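Researcher: Here's a chain I'd like modeled. Treat it as a single chain, no partners, no ligands.
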Amino acid sequence: MARILGLDLGAHSIKAILLESSFRGAAIVSHTQLEREADGGFDFSRLVSHLRLSKSLHVDQIIVAAPGASVATQHLSLPFTDTRRIEATLGFEIESLLPYDIDEVTYDHQVLTTEGGKSELIVGTARTAEIASLLAELKAAGLDPRVVTSSALAYQNLICASPVAGVAPGLVAGQEGLREAILDIGHERSSLCVGAPSGKLECARTFQGGGRDLTRALAMEFEVSLDDAQAWKEQEANLSDDLPPHSELARARGALRQALMPILREVRATLRANDARFHSSVGRLFLAGGTANLRGLCAFFSQELGMEVLPLSLGNRGAEARIEAPDQVIYGQAYALSLQGQGTLRGHRFNLRKGALSFKGDLDYLKGKASRLGVFALALLLLAGVSMVAQWRNVSQREQAIDAELFEMTKRVLGQGQKNYDIALNLLRGSGSPQAQLPAVSALDLFTELTDSAQKMEVKLEEVDAQLERIKVRGETAGFDGVDRLVSALEAVACFKEVKRNRVQKNKDGSKVVFDLDIRVSCSAGPASSS
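Model: Modeled as a single isolated chain. Structure tokens:
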């Protein structure tokens, strides 16, 4: 079970969500929102204190989105798909687009598509000094994020968690597999992410324009302070068409709609470019950020963009929602960041913690896991011990069965049982054993040795009487020297102990020499063989 903390460092406030992920799913453990300091900075120590009070400080990993305009993203096309070539080429491509030295920035990429031998990438760059300063502030408060990503790219995790099998509230059946877009209207900037419910990212960018522009528009229209305009916007603002004409609400609606036009132009241009690139239209748009709670905003965007527009809901996107519906749009980015820690999406994910800024690990995290690892190690040792005992018992039973079988066999053959293998083998090979009664060689072996020697000497054998102890031979050859050579060859055979000449004489016409030989045989040491 993993505990993942997602941190949304907004221009107006910090939002944090602690997600507990397991094989069964994910659940939001806690969530918190803290306003920025009066000088616009972050007080991470106050955040840590708040997390400690809510018993949410122990986490396995932290994922954060770089704040504001720290990350600049753009699309890049390369004429190859090999990962190593992309890594080797990316620096040169980015350097040509930067107004300053590439050594001053940290960058990363994420592959969008690989088709036709080409790669479409989204590339993000940020000043190294800014990211290093952010990491130093976080670490000083005891927070060391494993991932630093872009606010727009983070929403890919929510698109991946889209309810593909079901129908989101407000949608008609048949729209489950539509491509989606999420627009987060922040305080100063807005982020737009487009992708398919399968998790495939198509577009992600951040641009100027947010809730602060709406507040300024109201302040200018009614000539009030920004604080009063902000309070009135949150409590009274309404963008619906059914407002009384010439009323303050209608007047405010006009100012708000006019302030939203720059955001709408950016969204409309981005969606049209994306539709042209992928030859398919976005089916629905979800709104996130505090501004998404403005009454009538979804209907206004739907009318202007010509598509279904809904407020972002977290309850049907992979977690048990413990956040009230009006606040779910505010915690959208923090929840999207925490989902990234689950590792649902495969492949390389955008992360600015590279090179000198790489994540070095968290010793406190390892200490927290030490007891659990110790229990796992003990369990493995116990299982290994049980397995060894079971194998030993199995081998012991097999040895007993073999000994019993050896005892029965030796009892049948030798008349006495023996369980020791070495002793039983010696008894079977002994002089009193049946094996000892077998001759070392057969009469056929002796006959073969004799005929082989005769063929080499060009001697014709007329009659051969081969027995295990004696061989009688009658034959003829061209001369007396042939008999001498045959006798010498036979005497060289190990089994032929004595070769005796009984009769050696010429035949009646004097053309051949006939002979009789008597050979004594003794082959107790092994088979016959010639030297």
